Structure formats: C-alpha cells, structure tokens
Amino acid sequence: MTLILALIPANTPLTANGDGASFDLGASATRTFLCSMQISTQIEQESVEISVWGSADGVTWGPKPLLIMPQRFYKGETQMVLDVSQQPDVRLIRARWKLFRWGRVTPHPMFVLGFTATEIPAFANQPATARP
Questions:
Q1: Mean pLDDT for each consecutive 10-residue tract of the chain (132 residues)?
Q2: 18-121, what's its fold?
C-alpha cells in the first residue's frame, strides 16, 4: 500500500505564513517520497516557498528543513524527492509555507494550492540488475 500524505490539502487557500499538520512516518516502508506542489490560483507580484520539516517528538522541528521546494510565482505543478531513509530520528514531518508579496501592497498574498508527499515504493529504489 502506497502512503500518501496531504501535507497541505488540495485547494487550500493560503493568505499568511504558516505550518501544516504533522504526519507520522511509522507506516512508511521506504521513507522516500515524491513531493508535489500544485498551485491552482494566485495573484500577480507574489511568490510561495514551501519547506518540509522533520521532528523526533513533534515539539522540536530541527534547525533546518529536510526539503525546500523551489520558490514559485505562477500556477502549475512542481515535484521533488524527499528521502529521510538515512535519518531514523525523524519520526514526523510537516509542511511550512512562506508567502511574499511586492509592488502593490494590497491585496495580501493569496495562493490556492495543495502539497502532497507520495511514498515511492521499495521496488523503485532498487538498482537495476545486469542482464546476461
């Protein structure tokens, strides 16, 4: 069974910086995920930056993110791989977003987006075998 985490549920309006809910990685067999950010609505002269943070206890979220998605300005999809297989102390992950607006002061920044982490199955992580 493939684990899919909706770190920011689809079609969520974001108007200020914030943090998403935390998700336990205990059910993940590979601890490797394809992270997808899908922006469906935005206004001009703004950008969004999403990062993924890890924690052992759900209280302390570490000094730096596990993954920073490229800063985006327009609608569309962006994907990156998050691999925490070599970090056994990371038990929980959550998304954090920062919105930036320049030029015209109003309205405030506004994006409608979703951000998911879909587990990459174990067989996809295996190196190709040589064929005779």
A1: 92 95 95 97 90 96 96 95 96 96 75 96 63 52
A2: Jelly Rolls (2.60.120)
DSSP the chain: ---EEEEEEEEEEE-S-EE---EE-TT-SS-EEEEEEEEEEE-SSEEEEEEEEEESSSS---SS-SEEPPPB-SSEEEEEEEE-TT-TT--EEEEEEEEEE-SS--S---EEEEEEEEEPPHHHHSPPPPP-
Q: Is the peptide bond before 107 cis (omega within 30 degrees of 0)?
A: yes
Which tokens hold the place of 106?
């109003």
